[in-house]
Protein backbone atom coordinates (compact mmCIF):
# COMPACT_ATOMS: atom_id res chain seq x y z
CA UNK A 1 0.00 0.00 0.00
CA UNK A 2 2.63 2.45 1.11
CA UNK A 3 4.93 1.43 -1.73
CA UNK A 4 2.21 1.87 -4.35
CA UNK A 5 1.37 5.30 -2.98
CA UNK A 6 5.01 6.31 -2.95
CA UNK A 7 5.54 5.08 -6.50
CA UNK A 8 2.58 7.04 -7.85
CA UNK A 9 3.55 10.24 -6.05
CA UNK A 10 7.19 9.86 -7.03
CA UNK A 11 6.25 9.33 -10.68
CA UNK A 12 4.09 12.47 -10.69
CA UNK A 13 6.86 14.41 -8.95
CA UNK A 14 9.48 13.42 -11.51
CA UNK A 15 7.17 14.00 -14.48
CA UNK A 16 6.17 17.45 -13.31
CA UNK A 17 9.83 18.17 -12.53
CA UNK A 18 10.69 17.34 -16.14
CA UNK A 19 7.80 19.55 -17.27
CA UNK A 20 9.34 22.47 -15.36
CA UNK A 21 12.48 22.19 -17.46
CA UNK A 22 10.91 21.47 -20.83
CA UNK A 23 7.80 23.68 -20.96
CA UNK A 24 7.93 26.44 -23.54
CA UNK A 25 5.66 28.69 -21.54
CA UNK A 26 6.97 29.97 -18.16
CA UNK A 27 3.46 29.86 -16.65
CA UNK A 28 3.17 26.17 -17.45
CA UNK A 29 6.61 25.65 -15.90
CA UNK A 30 5.40 27.42 -12.80
CA UNK A 31 2.23 25.31 -12.63
CA UNK A 32 4.25 22.09 -12.93
CA UNK A 33 6.54 23.33 -10.20
CA UNK A 34 3.54 23.93 -7.94
CA UNK A 35 2.42 20.36 -8.62
CA UNK A 36 5.92 19.14 -7.71
CA UNK A 37 5.75 21.06 -4.45
CA UNK A 38 2.39 19.51 -3.59
CA UNK A 39 3.76 16.02 -4.28
CA UNK A 40 6.76 16.70 -2.07
CA UNK A 41 4.38 17.93 0.64
CA UNK A 42 2.48 14.62 0.49
CA UNK A 43 5.79 12.79 0.80
CA UNK A 44 6.50 14.85 3.92
CA UNK A 45 3.21 13.61 5.37
CA UNK A 46 4.25 10.01 4.76
CA UNK A 47 7.56 10.83 6.49
CA UNK A 48 5.69 11.84 9.69
CA UNK A 49 6.28 15.54 9.18
CA UNK A 50 2.80 17.12 8.83
CA UNK A 51 4.02 20.49 10.04
CA UNK A 52 6.70 20.64 7.38
CA UNK A 53 4.11 19.61 4.78
CA UNK A 54 1.83 22.47 5.76
CA UNK A 55 4.73 24.92 5.77
CA UNK A 56 5.88 23.57 2.41
CA UNK A 57 2.51 24.36 0.83
CA UNK A 58 2.24 27.65 2.68
CA UNK A 59 5.71 28.97 1.87
CA UNK A 60 6.58 27.42 -1.47
CA UNK A 61 3.23 26.97 -3.19
CA UNK A 62 1.51 29.83 -1.42
CA UNK A 63 4.13 32.56 -1.24
CA UNK A 64 7.18 31.99 -3.44
CA UNK A 65 5.29 30.61 -6.44
CA UNK A 66 2.64 33.33 -6.21
CA UNK A 67 5.48 35.86 -6.41
CA UNK A 68 6.98 34.10 -9.41
CA UNK A 69 3.63 33.86 -11.21
CA UNK A 70 3.03 37.50 -10.33
CA UNK A 71 6.33 38.55 -11.91
CA UNK A 72 5.68 36.43 -15.02
CA UNK A 73 2.33 38.17 -15.39
CA UNK A 74 3.75 41.61 -14.61
CA UNK A 75 6.42 41.29 -17.29
CA UNK A 76 3.81 39.60 -19.51
CA UNK A 77 6.16 36.88 -20.73
CA UNK A 78 4.41 34.67 -23.25
CA UNK A 79 5.66 31.49 -24.84
CA UNK A 80 9.19 31.62 -26.12
CA UNK A 81 8.99 31.58 -29.87
CA UNK A 82 12.73 31.41 -30.39
CA UNK A 83 15.22 29.04 -28.86
CA UNK A 84 14.47 28.07 -25.31
CA UNK A 85 17.74 26.26 -24.56
CA UNK A 86 21.21 27.76 -24.31
CA UNK A 87 24.01 26.72 -26.65
CA UNK A 88 25.28 24.61 -23.74
CA UNK A 89 22.11 22.49 -23.90
CA UNK A 90 23.62 19.15 -24.81
CA UNK A 91 26.64 19.49 -22.55
CA UNK A 92 24.41 20.55 -19.67
CA UNK A 93 22.14 17.53 -20.08
CA UNK A 94 25.12 15.18 -20.27
CA UNK A 95 26.65 16.70 -17.14
CA UNK A 96 23.35 16.43 -15.32
CA UNK A 97 22.99 12.76 -16.21
CA UNK A 98 26.59 12.11 -15.16
CA UNK A 99 25.79 13.67 -11.80
CA UNK A 100 22.75 11.42 -11.46
CA UNK A 101 24.77 8.31 -12.29
CA UNK A 102 27.43 9.29 -9.76
CA UNK A 103 24.79 9.81 -7.08
CA UNK A 104 23.23 6.43 -7.81
CA UNK A 105 26.63 4.81 -7.60
CA UNK A 106 27.21 6.51 -4.27
CA UNK A 107 23.77 5.47 -2.97
CA UNK A 108 24.23 1.81 -3.98
CA UNK A 109 27.34 1.40 -1.87
CA UNK A 110 25.99 3.12 1.21
CA UNK A 111 24.03 2.41 4.33
CA UNK A 112 22.83 4.47 7.25
CA UNK A 113 25.51 4.54 9.93
CA UNK A 114 24.51 7.47 12.17
CA UNK A 115 23.25 6.90 15.71
CA UNK A 116 19.47 6.45 15.98
CA UNK A 117 17.76 9.30 17.81
CA UNK A 118 14.78 9.24 20.15
CA UNK A 119 12.10 10.64 17.81
CA UNK A 120 10.00 7.75 16.49
CA UNK A 121 6.55 7.78 14.95
CA UNK A 122 4.98 7.00 18.35
CA UNK A 123 6.75 9.93 20.01
CA UNK A 124 5.60 12.27 17.22
CA UNK A 125 2.01 11.08 17.56
CA UNK A 126 2.08 11.46 21.33
CA UNK A 127 3.77 14.85 21.73
CA UNK A 128 2.86 16.38 18.40
CA UNK A 129 5.10 17.34 15.53
CA UNK A 130 4.68 21.08 16.02
CA UNK A 131 5.75 20.89 19.66
CA UNK A 132 8.82 18.81 18.80
CA UNK A 133 9.94 21.27 16.13
CA UNK A 134 9.34 24.24 18.41
CA UNK A 135 11.30 22.60 21.19
CA UNK A 136 14.41 22.03 19.15
CA UNK A 137 14.14 25.29 17.22
CA UNK A 138 13.91 27.53 20.27
CA UNK A 139 16.54 25.69 22.31
CA UNK A 140 19.33 24.22 20.18
CA UNK A 141 18.83 26.42 17.14
CA UNK A 142 17.93 29.75 18.70
CA UNK A 143 20.90 31.68 17.31
CA UNK A 144 20.46 30.47 13.70
CA UNK A 145 16.78 31.31 14.03
CA UNK A 146 17.58 34.89 14.98
CA UNK A 147 20.12 35.13 12.17
CA UNK A 148 17.52 34.06 9.61
CA UNK A 149 15.29 36.87 10.80
CA UNK A 150 18.11 39.32 10.01
CA UNK A 151 18.55 37.62 6.63
CA UNK A 152 14.88 38.22 5.88
CA UNK A 153 15.19 41.86 6.90
CA UNK A 154 18.16 42.28 4.57
CA UNK A 155 16.21 40.61 1.78
CA UNK A 156 13.26 42.98 2.29
CA UNK A 157 15.53 46.02 2.14
CA UNK A 158 17.30 44.62 -0.91
CA UNK A 159 14.05 43.96 -2.73
CA UNK A 160 12.74 47.45 -1.96
CA UNK A 161 15.91 49.13 -3.20
CA UNK A 162 16.15 46.99 -6.33
CA UNK A 163 12.59 47.67 -7.38
CA UNK A 164 12.93 51.45 -7.12
CA UNK A 165 12.34 53.42 -10.30
CA UNK A 166 16.00 54.33 -10.81
CA UNK A 167 18.85 52.18 -9.60
CA UNK B 1 7.96 0.17 5.26
CA UNK B 2 9.79 2.04 2.57
CA UNK B 3 13.54 2.21 2.73
CA UNK B 4 15.49 5.42 2.98
CA UNK B 5 17.00 4.70 -0.41
CA UNK B 6 13.76 5.21 -2.31
CA UNK B 7 13.45 8.74 -0.95
CA UNK B 8 17.11 9.48 -1.63
CA UNK B 9 16.86 8.22 -5.21
CA UNK B 10 13.77 10.36 -5.82
CA UNK B 11 15.49 13.42 -4.49
CA UNK B 12 18.63 12.67 -6.53
CA UNK B 13 16.51 12.51 -9.69
CA UNK B 14 14.77 15.77 -8.80
CA UNK B 15 18.08 17.46 -8.05
CA UNK B 16 19.50 16.38 -11.39
CA UNK B 17 16.42 17.64 -13.24
CA UNK B 18 16.81 20.97 -11.49
CA UNK B 19 20.52 21.12 -12.26
CA UNK B 20 19.93 20.30 -15.93
CA UNK B 21 17.28 23.02 -16.05
CA UNK B 22 19.67 25.59 -14.60
CA UNK B 23 22.33 24.63 -17.12
CA UNK B 24 20.25 24.54 -20.28
CA UNK B 25 17.38 27.03 -20.04
CA UNK B 26 17.73 30.65 -21.18
CA UNK B 27 14.76 32.19 -19.42
CA UNK B 28 15.94 33.62 -16.08
CA UNK B 29 12.64 32.92 -14.32
CA UNK B 30 12.68 29.27 -15.38
CA UNK B 31 16.27 29.01 -14.14
CA UNK B 32 15.10 30.47 -10.87
CA UNK B 33 12.32 27.88 -10.62
CA UNK B 34 14.83 25.11 -11.30
CA UNK B 35 16.92 26.38 -8.38
CA UNK B 36 13.80 26.12 -6.21
CA UNK B 37 13.33 22.56 -7.43
CA UNK B 38 16.92 21.72 -6.39
CA UNK B 39 16.37 23.27 -2.96
CA UNK B 40 13.22 21.19 -2.56
CA UNK B 41 14.93 17.95 -3.43
CA UNK B 42 17.51 18.76 -0.74
CA UNK B 43 14.68 19.42 1.72
CA UNK B 44 13.22 16.02 0.91
CA UNK B 45 16.58 14.42 1.70
CA UNK B 46 16.77 16.30 4.98
CA UNK B 47 13.34 15.16 6.10
CA UNK B 48 13.90 11.57 4.99
CA UNK B 49 17.14 11.46 6.97
CA UNK B 50 15.44 13.10 9.91
CA UNK B 51 12.77 10.38 9.94
CA UNK B 52 15.15 7.46 9.54
CA UNK B 53 17.64 8.77 12.08
CA UNK B 54 14.92 9.65 14.60
CA UNK B 55 16.28 13.17 14.93
CA UNK B 56 14.59 16.55 14.60
CA UNK B 57 17.61 18.54 13.41
CA UNK B 58 17.04 17.82 9.72
CA UNK B 59 13.61 19.39 9.80
CA UNK B 60 14.95 22.54 11.44
CA UNK B 61 17.40 22.77 8.56
CA UNK B 62 14.53 22.53 6.11
CA UNK B 63 13.04 25.48 7.91
CA UNK B 64 16.18 27.51 7.34
CA UNK B 65 16.36 26.42 3.71
CA UNK B 66 12.80 27.69 3.25
CA UNK B 67 13.71 31.02 4.83
CA UNK B 68 16.69 31.37 2.52
CA UNK B 69 14.51 30.41 -0.46
CA UNK B 70 11.98 33.08 0.48
CA UNK B 71 14.70 35.71 0.79
CA UNK B 72 16.16 34.54 -2.51
CA UNK B 73 12.77 34.79 -4.20
CA UNK B 74 12.27 38.37 -3.01
CA UNK B 75 15.71 39.59 -4.09
CA UNK B 76 15.95 37.45 -7.21
CA UNK B 77 12.60 38.56 -8.58
CA UNK B 78 13.40 42.20 -7.81
CA UNK B 79 16.64 41.75 -9.77
CA UNK B 80 14.74 40.27 -12.68
CA UNK B 81 12.30 43.16 -12.75
CA UNK B 82 15.20 45.63 -12.69
CA UNK B 83 16.92 43.72 -15.49
CA UNK B 84 13.74 43.63 -17.55
CA UNK B 85 13.34 47.39 -17.15
CA UNK B 86 16.83 47.90 -18.61
CA UNK B 87 16.93 45.32 -21.40
CA UNK B 88 13.26 44.42 -22.03
CA UNK B 89 14.15 40.74 -21.82
CA UNK B 90 14.90 38.17 -19.15
CA UNK B 91 17.03 35.96 -21.36
CA UNK B 92 20.28 35.10 -19.58
CA UNK B 93 22.16 35.35 -22.87
CA UNK B 94 21.35 39.06 -22.92
CA UNK B 95 23.14 39.46 -19.60
CA UNK B 96 26.34 40.45 -21.37
CA UNK B 97 27.15 43.96 -20.16
CA UNK B 98 30.19 42.75 -18.23
CA UNK B 99 31.53 40.80 -21.21
CA UNK B 100 34.29 42.02 -23.52
CA UNK C 1 -19.45 -4.39 12.22
CA UNK C 2 -16.51 -6.55 13.19
CA UNK C 3 -14.92 -6.17 9.77
CA UNK C 4 -11.64 -4.27 9.71
CA UNK C 5 -9.66 -2.52 6.99
CA UNK C 6 -6.06 -1.39 7.50
CA UNK C 7 -6.40 -1.88 11.26
CA UNK C 8 -9.43 0.38 11.68
CA UNK C 9 -13.04 -0.75 12.10
CA UNK C 10 -15.32 -0.44 9.08
CA UNK C 11 -17.58 2.09 10.84
CA UNK C 12 -14.66 4.51 10.75
CA UNK C 13 -14.69 4.56 6.95
CA UNK C 14 -18.47 4.64 6.70
CA UNK C 15 -18.63 7.55 9.14
CA UNK C 16 -15.95 9.37 7.15
CA UNK C 17 -17.84 9.03 3.87
CA UNK C 18 -21.15 10.02 5.45
CA UNK C 19 -19.56 13.08 7.05
CA UNK C 20 -17.98 14.14 3.76
CA UNK C 21 -21.26 13.76 1.87
CA UNK C 22 -23.35 15.58 4.47
CA UNK C 23 -20.91 18.47 4.79
CA UNK C 24 -20.45 18.78 1.04
CA UNK C 25 -24.16 18.83 0.29
CA UNK C 26 -24.79 21.22 3.15
CA UNK C 27 -22.08 23.63 2.00
CA UNK C 28 -23.36 23.46 -1.59
CA UNK C 29 -26.89 24.29 -0.44
CA UNK C 30 -25.58 27.10 1.75
CA UNK C 31 -23.62 28.48 -1.20
CA UNK C 32 -26.70 28.35 -3.43
CA UNK C 33 -28.94 30.02 -0.91
CA UNK C 34 -26.27 32.53 0.15
CA UNK C 35 -26.65 34.10 -3.30
CA UNK C 36 -30.42 34.30 -2.75
CA UNK C 37 -30.01 35.60 0.81
CA UNK C 38 -27.56 38.24 -0.38
CA UNK C 39 -29.99 39.57 -2.99
CA UNK C 40 -32.88 39.50 -0.54
CA UNK C 41 -30.98 41.11 2.35
CA UNK C 42 -29.41 43.84 0.25
CA UNK C 43 -32.76 44.36 -1.43
CA UNK C 44 -34.53 44.93 1.86
CA UNK C 45 -31.71 47.14 3.13
CA UNK C 46 -32.22 49.32 0.05
CA UNK C 47 -36.01 49.24 0.47
CA UNK C 48 -36.50 46.93 -2.49
CA UNK C 49 -38.01 43.47 -2.51
CA UNK C 50 -35.26 41.45 -4.21
CA UNK C 51 -36.21 38.41 -6.32
CA UNK C 52 -39.96 37.69 -6.02
CA UNK C 53 -41.07 35.83 -9.17
CA UNK C 54 -39.59 32.31 -9.03
CA UNK C 55 -41.38 30.44 -6.29
CA UNK C 56 -42.73 31.83 -3.05
CA UNK C 57 -40.80 35.08 -2.39
CA UNK C 58 -38.29 33.99 -5.02
CA UNK C 59 -37.18 30.89 -3.14
CA UNK C 60 -36.42 28.99 -6.35
CA UNK C 61 -34.19 31.78 -7.68
CA UNK C 62 -30.82 29.97 -7.08
CA UNK C 63 -32.09 26.94 -9.03
CA UNK C 64 -33.30 29.14 -11.87
CA UNK C 65 -29.93 30.93 -11.91
CA UNK C 66 -28.11 27.61 -11.95
CA UNK C 67 -30.16 26.30 -14.88
CA UNK C 68 -29.69 29.56 -16.76
CA UNK C 69 -25.92 29.52 -16.32
CA UNK C 70 -25.77 25.85 -17.21
CA UNK C 71 -27.42 26.34 -20.57
CA UNK C 72 -25.42 29.42 -21.58
CA UNK C 73 -23.00 29.14 -24.45
CA UNK C 74 -19.50 28.08 -23.48
CA UNK C 75 -17.03 30.62 -24.89
CA UNK C 76 -13.28 30.14 -24.95
CA UNK C 77 -11.44 33.19 -26.36
CA UNK C 78 -9.38 32.26 -29.40
CA UNK C 79 -6.21 33.97 -28.17
CA UNK C 80 -6.39 32.46 -24.69
CA UNK C 81 -4.18 29.82 -23.15
CA UNK C 82 -6.71 26.97 -23.36
CA UNK C 83 -5.30 24.70 -20.67
CA UNK C 84 -4.85 27.40 -18.04
CA UNK C 85 -8.21 28.89 -19.00
CA UNK C 86 -9.99 25.62 -18.20
CA UNK C 87 -7.86 24.91 -15.14
CA UNK C 88 -8.43 28.26 -13.42
CA UNK C 89 -12.07 27.82 -12.27
CA UNK C 90 -11.28 24.35 -10.92
CA UNK C 91 -8.31 25.65 -8.95
CA UNK C 92 -10.48 28.45 -7.60
CA UNK C 93 -13.28 26.13 -6.54
CA UNK C 94 -11.50 23.19 -4.91
CA UNK C 95 -9.56 24.93 -2.09
CA UNK C 96 -12.76 26.71 -1.10
CA UNK C 97 -14.47 23.39 -0.40
CA UNK C 98 -11.73 21.19 1.05
CA UNK C 99 -11.07 23.66 3.85
CA UNK C 100 -14.06 22.14 5.63
CA UNK C 101 -12.14 18.90 6.16
CA UNK C 102 -10.52 20.17 9.35
CA UNK C 103 -13.29 22.32 10.82
CA UNK C 104 -15.00 20.74 13.84
CA UNK C 105 -18.72 21.41 13.53
CA UNK C 106 -20.08 19.58 16.55
CA UNK C 107 -19.45 17.51 19.64
CA UNK C 108 -18.52 13.81 19.51
CA UNK C 109 -21.58 11.65 18.87
CA UNK C 110 -22.07 7.96 19.56
CA UNK C 111 -23.27 5.59 16.83
CA UNK C 112 -23.55 1.86 17.58
CA UNK C 113 -21.07 2.00 20.40
CA UNK C 114 -18.47 3.91 18.42
CA UNK C 115 -17.68 7.52 19.20
CA UNK C 116 -17.54 9.68 16.11
CA UNK C 117 -16.28 13.26 16.21
CA UNK C 118 -18.17 15.71 14.01
CA UNK C 119 -15.08 16.73 12.10
CA UNK C 120 -14.15 15.14 8.79
CA UNK C 121 -10.40 14.70 9.25
CA UNK C 122 -10.55 13.25 12.76
CA UNK C 123 -11.20 10.00 14.58
CA UNK C 124 -11.80 8.93 18.17
CA UNK C 125 -8.75 7.21 19.64
CA UNK C 126 -10.21 4.69 22.10
CA UNK C 127 -6.81 3.86 23.59
CA UNK C 128 -6.01 7.49 24.41
CA UNK C 129 -9.66 8.35 25.09
CA UNK C 130 -9.66 11.54 23.05
CA UNK C 131 -10.32 12.85 19.57
CA UNK C 132 -7.29 12.90 17.31
CA UNK C 133 -7.38 15.46 14.52
CA UNK C 134 -4.90 17.07 12.21
CA UNK C 135 -2.09 18.43 14.34
CA UNK C 136 -1.63 21.44 12.08
CA UNK C 137 -5.25 22.19 11.20
CA UNK C 138 -4.90 25.96 11.19
CA UNK C 139 -1.84 25.86 8.95
CA UNK C 140 -3.77 23.61 6.57
CA UNK C 141 -6.48 26.26 6.26
CA UNK C 142 -3.93 29.04 5.75
CA UNK C 143 -2.16 26.93 3.12
CA UNK C 144 -5.41 26.35 1.25
CA UNK C 145 -6.26 30.03 1.39
CA UNK C 146 -2.91 30.82 -0.19
CA UNK C 147 -3.47 28.26 -2.95
CA UNK C 148 -6.86 29.75 -3.83
CA UNK C 149 -5.04 32.78 -5.29
CA UNK C 150 -3.93 30.76 -8.31
CA UNK C 151 -7.42 30.34 -9.65
CA UNK C 152 -7.91 34.07 -9.99
CA UNK C 153 -4.36 34.80 -11.14
CA UNK C 154 -4.50 32.11 -13.81
CA UNK C 155 -7.94 33.23 -14.96
CA UNK C 156 -6.61 36.75 -15.35
CA UNK C 157 -3.55 35.62 -17.23
CA UNK C 158 -5.10 32.95 -19.45
CA UNK C 159 -7.97 35.10 -20.74
CA UNK C 160 -5.45 37.26 -22.61
CA UNK C 161 -7.48 40.39 -22.06
CA UNK C 162 -6.35 43.66 -20.49
CA UNK C 163 -9.17 43.83 -17.98
CA UNK C 164 -8.65 40.28 -16.86
CA UNK C 165 -4.91 40.75 -16.53
CA UNK C 166 -5.38 43.87 -14.43
CA UNK C 167 -7.92 42.07 -12.27
CA UNK C 168 -5.58 39.11 -11.82
CA UNK C 169 -2.61 41.34 -10.93
CA UNK C 170 -4.67 43.32 -8.47
CA UNK C 171 -6.03 40.24 -6.82
CA UNK C 172 -2.67 38.55 -6.42
CA UNK C 173 -1.16 41.65 -4.82
CA UNK C 174 -4.20 42.10 -2.60
CA UNK C 175 -4.37 38.48 -1.51
CA UNK C 176 -0.66 38.25 -0.68
CA UNK C 177 -0.89 41.43 1.41
CA UNK C 178 -3.96 40.44 3.37
CA UNK C 179 -3.00 36.80 3.76
CA UNK C 180 0.00 38.01 5.72
CA UNK C 181 -2.08 40.15 8.05
CA UNK C 182 -4.70 37.39 8.49
CA UNK C 183 -1.99 34.84 9.29
CA UNK C 184 -0.35 37.15 11.80
CA UNK C 185 -3.70 38.00 13.41
CA UNK C 186 -4.40 34.41 14.41
CA UNK C 187 -0.90 33.87 15.86
CA UNK C 188 -2.18 35.45 19.07
CA UNK C 189 -4.85 32.71 19.19
CA UNK C 190 -2.15 30.05 18.92
CA UNK C 191 -0.29 31.77 21.71
CA UNK C 192 -3.35 31.58 23.97
CA UNK C 193 -4.31 27.99 23.13
CA UNK C 194 -0.74 26.65 22.72
CA UNK C 195 -1.86 24.42 19.90
CA UNK C 196 -2.47 24.40 16.14
CA UNK C 197 -5.14 21.71 16.34
CA UNK C 198 -8.64 23.09 15.82
CA UNK C 199 -10.12 20.51 18.18
CA UNK C 200 -7.95 21.87 20.99
CA UNK C 201 -8.67 25.49 20.10
CA UNK C 202 -12.42 24.83 20.23
CA UNK C 203 -12.09 22.88 23.50
CA UNK C 204 -10.28 25.84 25.04
CA UNK C 205 -13.24 28.11 24.33
CA UNK C 206 -15.84 26.10 26.27
CA UNK C 207 -18.10 28.06 28.59
CA UNK C 208 -18.00 31.39 26.77
CA UNK C 209 -14.23 31.72 27.05
CA UNK C 210 -14.36 32.80 23.42
CA UNK C 211 -11.20 34.19 21.87
CA UNK C 212 -13.33 37.00 20.45
CA UNK C 213 -13.55 38.33 24.01
CA UNK C 214 -9.95 37.59 24.93
CA UNK C 215 -8.54 38.79 21.60
CA UNK C 216 -11.01 41.38 20.27
CA UNK C 217 -8.43 43.14 18.09
CA UNK C 218 -7.26 39.88 16.52
CA UNK C 219 -10.88 38.89 15.86
CA UNK C 220 -11.74 42.12 14.06
CA UNK C 221 -8.49 42.18 12.11
CA UNK C 222 -8.80 38.56 11.07
CA UNK C 223 -12.37 39.00 9.90
CA UNK C 224 -11.60 42.13 7.87
CA UNK C 225 -8.46 40.62 6.36
CA UNK C 226 -10.37 37.47 5.45
CA UNK C 227 -13.05 39.50 3.73
CA UNK C 228 -10.29 41.26 1.81
CA UNK C 229 -8.62 37.97 0.97
CA UNK C 230 -11.75 36.46 -0.55
CA UNK C 231 -12.39 39.66 -2.56
CA UNK C 232 -15.71 40.62 -1.01
CA UNK C 233 -16.98 44.17 -1.10
CA UNK C 234 -15.61 46.65 0.06
CA UNK C 235 -12.39 45.00 -1.15
CA UNK C 236 -13.70 43.53 -4.42
CA UNK C 237 -11.19 45.39 -6.60
CA UNK C 238 -10.30 42.35 -8.73
CA UNK C 239 -13.85 42.37 -10.10
CA UNK C 240 -14.77 46.05 -9.76
CA UNK C 241 -17.53 46.14 -12.39
CA UNK C 242 -17.38 49.89 -12.81
CA UNK C 243 -13.71 50.09 -13.79
CA UNK C 244 -12.60 46.64 -14.90
CA UNK C 245 -15.83 45.38 -16.53
CA UNK C 246 -15.75 42.25 -14.42
CA UNK C 247 -12.05 41.79 -13.68
CA UNK C 248 -10.61 38.32 -13.93
CA UNK C 249 -13.88 36.69 -15.00
CA UNK C 250 -14.60 39.06 -17.91
CA UNK C 251 -13.98 36.36 -20.51
CA UNK C 252 -15.70 33.55 -18.67
CA UNK C 253 -19.18 32.33 -19.40
CA UNK C 254 -21.57 29.51 -18.61
CA UNK C 255 -20.51 26.92 -16.01
CA UNK C 256 -16.97 28.25 -15.74
CA UNK C 257 -18.35 31.60 -14.63
CA UNK C 258 -20.72 29.80 -12.28
CA UNK C 259 -17.73 28.01 -10.75
CA UNK C 260 -16.02 31.33 -9.95
CA UNK C 261 -19.26 32.54 -8.48
CA UNK C 262 -19.60 29.42 -6.36
CA UNK C 263 -15.96 29.67 -5.30
CA UNK C 264 -16.55 33.20 -4.07
CA UNK C 265 -19.51 32.19 -1.93
CA UNK C 266 -17.90 28.94 -0.78
CA UNK C 267 -14.87 30.97 0.29
CA UNK C 268 -17.17 33.23 2.24
CA UNK C 269 -18.73 30.24 4.01
CA UNK C 270 -15.28 28.77 4.74
CA UNK C 271 -13.98 32.04 6.12
CA UNK C 272 -17.03 32.44 8.34
CA UNK C 273 -16.67 28.85 9.56
CA UNK C 274 -12.96 29.39 10.33
CA UNK C 275 -13.69 32.65 12.16
CA UNK C 276 -16.41 30.87 14.17
CA UNK C 277 -14.02 28.07 15.07
CA UNK C 278 -11.11 30.27 16.00
CA UNK C 279 -12.86 33.16 17.71
CA UNK C 280 -16.54 32.45 18.44
CA UNK C 281 -16.20 29.22 20.37
CA UNK C 282 -16.87 26.80 17.47
CA UNK C 283 -19.84 24.59 18.31
CA UNK C 284 -19.92 25.59 21.99
CA UNK C 285 -23.09 27.30 23.20
CA UNK C 286 -25.82 27.03 25.82
CA UNK C 287 -26.72 23.37 26.26
CA UNK C 288 -30.37 23.39 25.19
CA UNK C 289 -29.45 22.95 21.53
CA UNK C 290 -26.94 20.47 20.04
CA UNK C 291 -23.49 21.78 19.12
CA UNK C 292 -23.89 21.72 15.36
CA UNK C 293 -26.96 23.97 15.55
CA UNK C 294 -24.92 26.59 17.38
CA UNK C 295 -22.14 26.22 14.86
CA UNK C 296 -24.47 26.74 11.90
CA UNK C 297 -26.18 29.66 13.64
CA UNK C 298 -22.86 31.41 14.26
CA UNK C 299 -21.66 30.81 10.69
CA UNK C 300 -24.92 32.16 9.26
CA UNK C 301 -24.70 35.21 11.47
CA UNK C 302 -21.19 35.95 10.17
CA UNK C 303 -22.38 35.46 6.59
CA UNK C 304 -25.12 37.96 7.33
CA UNK C 305 -22.48 40.38 8.64
CA UNK C 306 -20.55 39.98 5.37
CA UNK C 307 -23.66 40.93 3.40
CA UNK C 308 -24.39 43.77 5.77
CA UNK C 309 -20.88 45.14 5.17
CA UNK C 310 -21.43 44.85 1.42
CA UNK C 311 -24.65 46.84 1.63
CA UNK C 312 -23.02 49.53 3.80
CA UNK C 313 -19.54 50.37 2.53
CA UNK C 314 -18.40 51.70 -0.83
CA UNK C 315 -15.45 50.10 -2.59
CA UNK C 316 -11.91 51.07 -1.57
CA UNK C 317 -9.50 52.68 -3.99
CA UNK C 318 -6.52 50.48 -4.84
CA UNK C 319 -3.86 52.58 -3.10
CA UNK C 320 -6.08 52.95 -0.04
CA UNK C 321 -6.46 49.19 0.06
CA UNK C 322 -2.70 48.60 -0.07
CA UNK C 323 -2.04 51.30 2.50
CA UNK C 324 -4.65 49.82 4.82
CA UNK C 325 -3.13 46.36 4.53
CA UNK C 326 0.53 47.20 4.92
CA UNK C 327 0.55 50.34 7.04
CA UNK C 328 -2.41 49.75 9.37
CA UNK C 329 -3.29 46.07 9.68
CA UNK C 330 0.20 44.59 9.61
CA UNK C 331 1.64 46.82 12.39
CA UNK C 332 -1.53 46.32 14.44
CA UNK C 333 -1.29 42.53 14.22
CA UNK C 334 2.39 42.64 15.19
CA UNK C 335 1.54 44.90 18.12
CA UNK C 336 -1.20 42.48 19.13
CA UNK C 337 1.26 39.59 19.14
CA UNK C 338 3.71 41.52 21.32
CA UNK C 339 0.98 42.57 23.78
CA UNK C 340 -0.39 39.03 23.93
CA UNK C 341 3.09 37.71 24.62
CA UNK C 342 3.55 40.22 27.44
CA UNK C 343 0.13 39.93 29.11
CA UNK C 344 -1.22 36.43 28.54
CA UNK C 345 0.62 34.14 30.93
TrEMBL record, chain B:
Its EC number is 7.1.1.-. Keywords: Cell inner membrane, Cell membrane, Membrane, NAD, Oxidoreductase, Quinone, Translocase, Transmembrane, Transmembrane helix, Transport, Ubiquinone. It is found in: Cell membrane; Membrane. It comes from the Bacteria. The chain crosses the membrane at residues 6-24, 29-49, 61-84. It is a multi-pass membrane protein. One of its GO terms (molecular function) is quinone binding. GO terms for biological process: ATP synthesis coupled electron transport. It catalyses: a quinone + NADH + 5 H(+)(in) = a quinol + NAD(+) + 4 H(+)(out). InterPro entries: NADH_UbQ_OxRdtase_chain4L/K, NUOK/Mnh_C1-like. Its main location: membrane. It is an enzyme of class 7 (translocase). One of its GO terms (cellular component) is NADH dehydrogenase complex. NDH-1 is composed of 14 different subunits. Subunits NuoA, H, J, K, L, M, N constitute the membrane sector of the complex. HAMAP family: NDH1_NuoK. Belongs to the complex I subunit 4L family. NDH-1 shuttles electrons from NADH, via FMN and iron-sulfur (Fe-S) centers, to quinones in the respiratory chain. The immediate electron acceptor for the enzyme in this species is believed to be ubiquinone. Couples the redox reaction to proton translocation (for every two electrons transferred, four hydrogen ions are translocated across the cytoplasmic membrane), and thus conserves the redox energy in a proton gradient. This is NADH-quinone oxidoreductase subunit K. It comes from Geoanaerobacter pelophilus.
Amino acid sequence: METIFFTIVAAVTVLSGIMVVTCRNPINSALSLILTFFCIATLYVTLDAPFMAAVQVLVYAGAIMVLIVFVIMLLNIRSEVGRRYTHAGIIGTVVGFLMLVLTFNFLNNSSLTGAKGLITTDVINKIGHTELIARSMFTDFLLPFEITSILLLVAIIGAVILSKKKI
Amino acid sequence: MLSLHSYLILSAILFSIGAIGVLIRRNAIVIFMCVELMLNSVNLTFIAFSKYLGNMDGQIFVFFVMTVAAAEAAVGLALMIAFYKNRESIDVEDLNLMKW
Amino acid sequence: MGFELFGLPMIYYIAMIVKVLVVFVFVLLTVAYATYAERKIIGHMQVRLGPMRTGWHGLLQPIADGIKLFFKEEIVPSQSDKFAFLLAPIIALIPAFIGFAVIPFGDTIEVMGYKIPLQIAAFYDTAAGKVVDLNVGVLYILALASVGVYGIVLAGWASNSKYSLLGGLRSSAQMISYELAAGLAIISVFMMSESLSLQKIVADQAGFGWYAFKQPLAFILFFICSIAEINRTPFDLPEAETELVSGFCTEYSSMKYAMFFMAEYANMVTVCAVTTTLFLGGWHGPGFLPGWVWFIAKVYFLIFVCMWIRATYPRYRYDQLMRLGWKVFLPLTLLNIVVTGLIAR
